[in-house]
């Protein structure tokens, strides 16, 4: 799986723990946000929430791992956008259930609250259950069908309730869009599909969003 | 405070626990969703999420208490709509921090996972901290300003990324809108402002949404 | 490993969950306590705590899994006796750490508090970490030596602070000793070593305790 | 209430948090263990467990608050001695239940595992519930009687299974007894009753233990 890790400023020091806990699983990991606390430029959860949603919408990754001090801020920020299904994941059991029932594309971790000694181990145990082969299989098994139905419906609802992502990219306030899009490495990560010419027709959703990002940065 | 409690089907049996834990706090409580498991008609978290957001958007209450088996489904459903700031609240400490940092208008409870013996007591301890006089005061105190700024920004983002709620009401699929709006008592609850004539001008947001709800039900 | 599962009355209905979660691990499991709530005769945590310690002292098993509503009662009851090192284990991380740091011979589970939906899954995740090949390896690794030293010292302290187990067997009040020793299957389980004649000299600790149990039952 | 706080070395830096969370409750607090990480002399949980039990046995305090990295080590160490009823307390609900059901005289806190941001607040919420006027009232209420019976029985069992505390004081290994009894301030705290002459007859349990402590230190 292609996984983006996106840390905001208050928990940027946990970035290394997350990367380490993801190792050895055969995933392609993109470390898109802050790497260390106190670094400039900073990203708040408002920015990482936007980036999480954008990266997913552009199809750059299959899954985003974000978070903040309590996990509530990033969760709310990411879910302001269309196409995000985000779990608030604190324990291996949360991960086990979220993978089976919600099968979302994003999680928000509590990276300061409750983040003590051995919390890095807990991340590992969480990822053990999260990236399971049972994603979307339902729990309990007999609820598999209605749960799959709910997932499809919520995806549909999210598309209906939100503006198109390209419109969002162009209408977000500067203080949300610019620190996110100008964050070191983001532009290259988002737009390398264009350079590589492997993005299909110019009317596909990646190309439309890529152009919207470019336009926003250069206006 | 005016508080709506909205339970979906899988955890409808927890409804009585929630009501009891809210007692004696001087709040005006509206019990809008399911009251007992197995009752017809059923509401899924897709429906209660929509109702939570709608009730808030119409200004009928100040706060919504929802949830589902794990809390993740209702959270994702409610946050598909504009104007919802929802916490996933499992412990008194979660509530204490959410009240101070996020100061949202909605919480999602885990009402099956981890919901064992004395979970009703835990609800009481959660509400003790949630409905604190310190809402929005920030934690730690010195982060009060940037946290308030983030709250305002996320509210603004939510308004920008979503269609207007009246458009949402008219464009949601039938299987989302109708079971919710036709749920016993909902129509009366949502539209009593119109009957009572205490809703100000016909162009205010309550009246616009009230008309959208009526139109949707009668089309 | 040889594992005894010992349930008291308030959480006897969890017995089946525990057995199921232990399956497929290659352990020899002895189901020594209550199997179902409401069955007569009942065992309280006072009785299961005594049985846990006695079974360990007689060398019948390597590990005991007990618990009660919150886990605190069984823990306190079992630890009243010599030779018990018991963890209060609620999450997979608790199990991971307890196996490495404390490497005890007993755990106490919370089997009503927090025991909701999917708690059976949580048991499985807990056992995944508990019966690890890393038992006693220390955490963090560099603390391996002092942690092993502490384990040896606490074992030594427990032997010094307690009377001999045979004296304990003979001096416990009837309401503690008798419901435990007379519980269906216990006598046979404890004393089959004598019948089988595979217990070494009559002065070994098993034989001494077996005689003490017999004496207690027949006085 | 008279409360002793006793921290061991791995979590000594939490000592200030515990003291602060105890403030304003009208308790008399004795800070008997380590105050800061890295200070010499160090106390391990083996020593703080012994001190906790001894201080309770001598009647110097009504309650002991201890802990260690996970809470399991101190718990096991303290419970090796007679007369200790210790809870492993992680959440306000744990405290609420422990106060009502077990009504013990000691708690063990997890002071590194899970001890992140706002854990000091969690301590406050825990103490809010722990030092409740409802101690020993039972939960649920209708189980009040059997729970009180179990408490009395476990107290009786602890007295039967252990040697007398004065014998324990004289027979513990040097590496357990001496670092504990020689810890700065301990001798004075334990024996001030003798100096003050307010200890009643020389055969009461305080005097017997005080003499045992003195003898151990001077042999």
Can you walk me through this structure?
The structure is a homotetramer of 219-residue chains. By secondary structure, chain A is of the alpha/beta class. The first copy, chain A, is built from ten helices and five strands; from the N terminus they run βαβαβαβαβαααααα. The first copy, chain A, has helices at residues 15-22, 45-57, 72-78, 92-102, 119-130, 144-161, 165-171, 174-181, 186-195, 205-218; strands spanning 2-5, 28-31, 63-68, 86-89, 106-110. The first copy, chain A, has a five-stranded parallel sheet with strand order 2-1-3-5-4, with helices on both faces. The model of chain A has no long low-confidence stretch (mean pLDDT 95). Chains in contact: A-B, A-C, A-D, B-C, B-D, C-D.
Q: Report the portion of residues of chain A in β strands.
A: 5-15%
Largest interface: C-D, 46 and 47 residues
Q: List low-confidence stretches of chain A.
A: none
Largest sheet of chain A: 5 strands, parallel
Oligomeric state of the chains?
Answer: homotetramer
Mean pLDDT of chain A: 95
| DSSP, total strands of chain A | 5
N/C terminus separation of chain A: 34 Å
Question: Which descriptor suits the 3D outline of chain A?
Answer: globular
Helical segment count of chain A: 10
What is the alpha-carbon Rg of chain A in Å?
A: 17 Å
The helix content of chain A is 40-55%
**Can you write the helix and strand succession of chain A as a string?**
EHEHEHEHEHHHHHH
Q: Which class do the helix and strand fractions of chain A yield?
A: alpha/beta
Sheet with the most strands: spatial strand order of chain A? 2-1-3-5-4
